[in-house]
Amino acid sequence: MPNKHNAGFGDQVASLVKTLQADVPDCVAAGVVDMSTGMLLAYETVESHPPEVMDLLAGATLDLFQGRTVVMIEDVFKERRGLDSDQHYFQEVLVNSDNVTHLFLRMNSREDVVAVIVCRKSVNVGMLFAQARRVVKDHAGL
């Protein structure tokens, strides 16, 4: 696995963000969160947002996927299904707010990296999932 702090990794993250914003319908923002540090690695947005809002997005992503209660739920599901794995159970989370739809996707090849896509509320959710999954799959080497 490549070192995520080298220049190649940074270029791959930037490419993922740009491709998500270009290819996902009604996308108004895209970013990548490092779950091992809780940091937002890169983002693109059509509007400016205060830095503290972007930091909160990274923290909220960490809570969604690896918060204490979420990990407990994952452990119960794995136990009940007889799974003995360190792999996280939750891979995708869709959140609808009043004005936008957020999709959070773990990278298939790197569970510690999550892509975040924010779209207008009018987005076709099926197309959102299809395009976001395709882009994430195309960036599997991340």
Note poorly predicted spans. Answer: none
CATH topology (fold) name: Beta-Lactamase
**Shape estimate:** globular
Helix content: 40-55%
* Whole-number count of domains: 1
Task: List the secondary-structure elements in sequence, H or E.
Answer: HEEHHEEEH
Helix/strand-derived category reads alpha+beta
- Distance from N terminus to C terminus (CA atoms, Å) equals 9 Å
CATH homologous superfamily assignment: Dynein light chain 2a, cytoplasmic
CATH-defined architecture: 2-Layer Sandwich
What are the salient characteristics of this protein?
142 residues, alpha+beta, Beta-Lactamase, 5-stranded antiparallel sheet, Roadblock/LC7 domain-containing protein
How would you sum up this structure, described in words?
- This protein has one domain (34-138): Beta-Lactamase, CATH 3.30.450.30.
- Helix content is 42%, strand content 25%.
- The protein contains four helices and five strands, in the order αββααβββα.
- Strands 2-1-5-4-3 form a five-stranded antiparallel β-sheet, sandwiched between helices.
- The radius of gyration is 15 Å and the shape is globular.
- The model has no long low-confidence stretch (mean pLDDT 89).
